[in-house]
Amino acid sequence: MGEYLEGVYHGWRFDESGKVMQVPALQGRPPDDISATVYSTAVADGFVWASEQECSPSGSAGEPCYPVHFAAPFDQVRLHVDANVNHLTPWGVDGTMVYPTGNPVQRRAELSAIRRRLEES
Amino acid sequence: MNAREDAAVWNRWYPLGSPTDIRRRKATKTWLLGHDIDLEIHKTWISASSDSRPLPVTERLGYVWTSLGTPDGPPQQLLEYYEVDRLVMNIWSTPIKCSGLRIVDNVIDNAHFPFLHPNILGDDDHLDLVPGEASVDTAGALWLKSQKAWLPLTNSVAEYTYRISDPYSVVLFIHRPSTPDRYDYLGIFTQPLDEENFVAHKLLAWIREDWMDERQLKADQQSISVQDKYVLERHVHKKLPLNGAETSIKVDSSSLNYREWLRSNHVTYGAMI
Q1: CA distance to partner chain B, nearest, from residue A32 (Å)
Q2: In angstroms, what CA-CA distances link A18 with A15, A35, A37, A43?
Q3: Residue B114: CATH number of its domain
Q4: How many beta-carbon pairs below 8 A join chains A and B?
Q5: Chain A nearest-CA residue for B249
Q6: Tens digits of per-residue pLDDT, B114-136?
Q7: pLDDT in tens, B35-56
Q8: Which residue range forms the structural domain that includes residue B157?
Q9: What residue in B sits closest to A36 (Cα-Cα)?
């Protein structure tokens, strides 16, 4: 798919073999070779799956293939980061109901709407 | 492990929440270091006990503090909190699913600002990190000074100082260019429920200014904390590795210093050793 995998926490970039390509805090590669473990992955049912062995999620009941623990629905894995967007979560501000953001007026409106729904139910 | 075996953690004070929250929720029960804590709300004070054993309780910095062990003094102090021109509040007390040591490690780490708090506490144009200074004072507290980071909100470089006097808490001093000898304070005091769960009590004590809106400040600070909560709960290891299970590089000096300080204080509860 893409050329690298980027961590959400510190922005380290890893290539296909798991080796660290770039550490932003150092403005380049680290002095030592650092590698991450590489797992076999597959995309199915809208999820990214990973396994230590060859991964085939279809009909994989009991097989050692599991959705990656951050359980990213495939279309929500970011290929590019838009620096102008405030990414509260990887799927952006609009998609999240858990942590409403934006301007406080809107946020208050959202929260009171949730509160009303809860009171009605 | 049983927290009782870790003297460095057992004999400390921990916050149980703000008295206002405890009263509003009519809370009767909470947890600390794997032990049930029973709360009793009286007219003018709140008492705590564990297995019918009464615990010492004191109120300080807007929180109710207790200890399961025998602390060698009162809870940590921040006298500036009581200055009359300050806006002080509990931002929130929120449960987070990992070791409480993790959030201290997160607070003192400036390298994640551009990625986790883009355009709030850092941005893509200022990724390089300047290492600060670390020292341990006579009381044994770890100080991380001259921690500089680009702050897009002010379009300038901000300077922070961190004070870690307890393994499970950190006080952040935000340097104020207009008043160099006074600081704005944020505190993260954790209440470790067990080794892999804690409640983060976040304190704000800023010098009051005209533009400040209490609700807005609270909401903004909560939004930032929520971004941190997102990664804190997604670490492979719930406990804080002190054993090399995680890769750090030289530029993560604050984190390395904190972990070294934990090792030298023999902290094992909530850590991987």
Answers
A1: 9
A2: 5, 5, 6, 19
A3: 3.90.380.10
A4: 63
A5: A30
A6: 888 888 888 888 888 888 899 99
A7: 999 999 999 999 999 999 999 9
A8: 76-272
A9: B247
